[in-house]
Design goal:
The chain is an alpha/beta fold and about 180 residues long. It is about 20% helix and about 25% strand. It has one domain: P-loop containing nucleotide triphosphate hydrolases (Rossmann fold). A hairpin with a 6-residue loop joins strand 9 (about 140-150) and strand 10.
């Protein structure tokens, strides 16, 4: 299945991606994440539990089956502006094959239309994160998830509130940056 996580910056998109990854890990599935590297080449882990790294350029050739793929800061790699490029088409092809291969692919976007159209029109679910309070300088008290299936006009709403919400924060690093791809 393919999931697009939408929301403002600091709204909980990476957190919910990590939460789904944590669930997949606990179910015994291999988890892949596009963690970046620092200047010395050391991995900057987004997830704080066992996972494998991947580069977007190699995604389609990885021959993945029955796994979880987390794509953080996706617009850096799936920008609609880059649509004519071969790599963008390869990512689109990966999306077409993911469901057949039992791959759960979660990617995020601040703005839906910034994502390449062959990808953004393909998710089974859209998950919008809304942070409370909205001001990211204040401590988060709750995250509202609005979940829409492409097969239904009815949205489902799920609330995650403190203190339970805070118990899951250790599964990921919220300050790790995914550096933009080289042109």
């Amino acid at each position: 299945m393919i999931y697009e996580h939408l929301g403002d910056n600091r709204s909980g998109k990476t957190f919910t991606n990590a939460l789904f990854a944590w669930e997949a890990f606990n179910l015994g599935r291999t988890v892949y994440c596009n963690c970046g590297k620092d200047a010395s080449g050391r991995s900057l882990h987004i997830l704080n539990f066992p996972h494998r790294h991947y580069n977007f350029e190699d995604l389609r050739q990885m021959d993945l089956y029955e796994c979880y793929v987390m794509s953080d800061e996706s617009v850096e790699f799936m920008d609609a502006f880059d649509a004519p490029k071969r790599m963008m088409r390869e990512i689109g092809y990966f999306g077409y094959q993911a469901t057949k291969r039992g791959v759960d692919w979660h990617y995020d976007a601040v703005r839906h239309k910034n994502i390449y159209n062959r990808v953004r029109l393909n998710p089974h679910y859209y998950i919008q994160s809304v942070r409370y309070p909205h001001n990211p300088k204040l401590p988060v008290q709750a995250i509202k998830l609005i979940i829409v299936s492409r097969y239904s006009s009815q949205a489902k709403t799920l609330w995650m509130r403190q203190p339970v919400l805070g118990r899951f924060f250790p599964i990921y690093n919220h300050v790790v940056l995914v550096p933009p791809k080289e042109n």
